[in-house]
Design a protein that fits this description.
This protein folds into two domains: about 1-120 and about 140-155, Tetracycline Repressor, domain 2; about 160-284, Up-down Bundle (Four Helix Bundle (Hemerythrin (Met), subunit A)), CATH 1.20.120. About 80% of the residues lie in helices and about 0% in strands. The chain is built from 15 helices and no strands. The protein has helices spanning about 5-10, 10-30, 35-60, 60-65, 85-105, 105-130, 135-140, 140-155, 160-185, 185-190, 195-200, 200-220, 220-225, 230-255, 255-280.
Length: about 280
Amino acid sequence: MTLRSYVELMKLRIGLMVALMAVMGYVAVADRIDPAKLAVLALAMLLGSASSSVFNHFYDRDIDRIMERTCRRPLASGQTLHPARVLWLAALLLVAGCGLATAFFNAVVGLHLFLGAFFYAIVYTVWLKRRTWLNIVIGGAAGSFAVLAGGAAVDPSRWLLPFLLSITLFLWTPSHFWSLAILLKDDYAKARVPMLPVVKGNKATAEAVFVNSVLLVASSLLPVAFGKLGWAYGAGAVAFGGHFLWTNWRMLKDPTREWARKNFFGSMIYLVGLFFAVLGDVNL
């Protein structure tokens, strides 16, 4: 195993997105932004996300061998590394992340980090992924804990705004992942993973994505309704939400791989847009 293989096991691109959501929770609550604390928070979240990703590679190595997108992953492709060592790596990363979060911030941050990793590794990967098309709906709660961790890093008692933002992130996951699942429908069918497009088809999936995205965009306005964020955030949420609903609508009318791909990338643009809307609001 090379260093590159170890890095691939950790799925750092997902980790960076998780860290970004934790930073959003921190920025939304903090009266003054401390770059050092943000760096430690991001590192702790990266470690926690890497832990669950390493476990995901370990547990899914059998179906990863079947799917074209994942067959070249380190464990699926047969690169030499004892499974027990992979589990130890996952455990060490989780302990390091939770330990850093607890020592530097507080136990609530460490708990949220642990729950995020647990939901992705156990609830989603082990319990739900191979059993039900609701896998990503319930398992998607993993990302919501990052926002809660970020808010708790400032003050665990100031939980309302991070909680409202976590609802938005919870609803973002199905719209994001079901669009990707349309692109990977044949792979999931081959591996007998019951993702929504495999079970219900592209049209029904596009309908579900659109309904979910309407709820998603509506939920993004809750911080304004509760008076926790102001007009700058509200304007950004409406603008980015409107664009995302437009791509959803186009996919609903034409549930092809082309529009699924555009909606998948649109979901990431939407999420990053919300981050900048929060950042812009708290700095005005």
